[in-house]
Amino acid sequence: MITSISFLALQQYWWLLVSVLGAILVFLMFVQGGQTFIFSMGKTELERSLLVNTLGRKWEFTFTTLVTFGGAFFASFPLFYSTSFGGAYWVWTLALLAFVVQAVAYEFRSKPSNVLGKKTFEVMLFLNGLLGTVLIGTAVGTFYNGANFSHDFLNHVDWHHPARGLEAVLNLHNVLLGLTVFLLSRVLGLLYFLNTIDHETIVQRSKKCLLYNAIPFVVAFLSFTIWLMLKPGFAVNPDTAQVYMQDYKYLINLIEMPVVLVMFLLGVVGVLFGIIRTLWPGKTYDKGIWFSGIGTFLTVLSLFLIAGYNNTAFYPSLVDINQSLTITNASSSMYTLKAMSVVSLLIPFVLAYIVVAWRSINKKKIDKSEIEDSTEHNY
Fold first, then answer.
1. Which stretches of 77-171 are DSSP H helices?
2. How far apart are CA 93 and CA 90, in angstroms?
3. pLDDT-wise least confident of 55-64, 213-222, 366-375
4. What is the pLDDT of residue 376?
5. Got the DSSP string for 27-65?
6. What's the DSSP call for residue 235?
């Protein structure tokens, strides 16, 4: 069946898979968001250990998804990989370094041979939560605002700014997306605490902090979304492959792809419902992470799809607009995409394993007794 699929269909299929991985990654960044509360919510060593250990159960999911996301981009759209990762290497190096630091912190924080002290590794976790989310969000902002690259007919890439990707922070809209991802990760982190920790003090602090983080998140998200819908976008003429600026391009993409529009609206409603239901007075509601999590997935997936589908350049060039990258000019060969598509049929089984592992890990909320039990594995 795969052998009969057109080249364009394969390119669209792999942009969908990359988008799905990106959406899952943003949801799983609740780990990073939760880490930014280690000191503000963890007033005692026990409270900090509860926070670190409930997040420690999931940090590998986030790290693995990040690696898979990068690997899928490399395999399916190698020109983007060589352009962004090779040209804007400082922003990606700092982001990856932040995640490496996270891995070290979780592995060594509670080791008997830890001579640096727990606080040193807790600071590393805080920095990963702050830098990892902001840097990746800011880098993804260039999908809509463009980057300073060019390439020749041999696909040799030149980067036209000495900051090598860090210049993305000079664009307010890139930073706004980075801030939105950061605030979203904090909101999801708080909802995750409510779902997984059995400690009354942390539960009450999480509910209080949720309100103070949800409001700026909604403001940042609405600001970014309104700006995105109203800005000109990088459209591609399907007949000539020429790139040009089109007013309201991303809004037009939503309207012309009604399925994506419905996903986007359902996602926004899901995120807001999870937050509002959790904040509603009365008995503590601990299922908000699932509504907001699924909503996050749908919303981010929609934003990725309007960046690459419907004749849109997903990585615009600010040096020469006609050297912008699209899913057609940046993809691997048809043979490669076909071969990888066969392997991708195993993805549902991998997702099923993740669901089973997740449920097994979360069968019981973490509490004081588990932290004090020397037979349990603690981070």
1. 78-80, 86-87, 89-108, 118-145
2. 5
3. 366-375
4. 66
5. HHTHHHHHHTTHHHH--SHHHHHHHHHHHHTTHHHHHHH
6. E
pLDDT tens digits for 129-171?
A: 999 999 999 999 999 999 999 987 777 889 999 999 999 999 9
Tell me if 228 is assigned to some domain. no
Token output for 203: 């539960």
Q: Is residue 362 part of a domain?
A: yes
- The per-residue b/e assignment along 33-43, b for 16 or more CB within 10 angstroms, e otherwise, is bbbbbbeebbe
Domain count, the chain: 1
* Cα distances (Å, whole numbers) of residue 347 to 253, 299, 371: 28, 21, 35
346 assigned to some structural domain: yes
Cβ(300)–Cβ(27) below 8 Å: yes
The per-residue pLDDT for 356 is 86
Smallest Cα–Cα separation from 194: which of 291, 338, 100, 300? 291
Using only C-alpha atoms, the chain has a radius of gyration, in whole angstroms, of: 21
Instruction: Examine the pLDDT at 2 and tell me if it is beyond 60.
Output: no
Closest by CA to 161, choosing from 313, 318, 315, 325, is 318
Q: Which residues form the domain of 171?
A: 2-207+312-372
- The stretch 312-341 carries a mean pLDDT of 94
Alpha-carbon gap, residue 268 to 297, rounded angstroms? 10
Q: Is the confidence at residue 1, as pLDDT, over 80?
A: no
Nearest to 325 by CA among 314, 335, 340: 314
- Using DSSP bridges, classify how beta strands 149-151 and 157-159 pair: parallel, antiparallel or unpaired: antiparallel
Quick check: 22 and 177 in contact, CB under 8 A? Answer: no
pLDDT, position 375: 61
Instruction: Note the Cα 292 to chain centre separation in Å.
Output: 14
Q: Is 243 inside any structural domain?
A: no
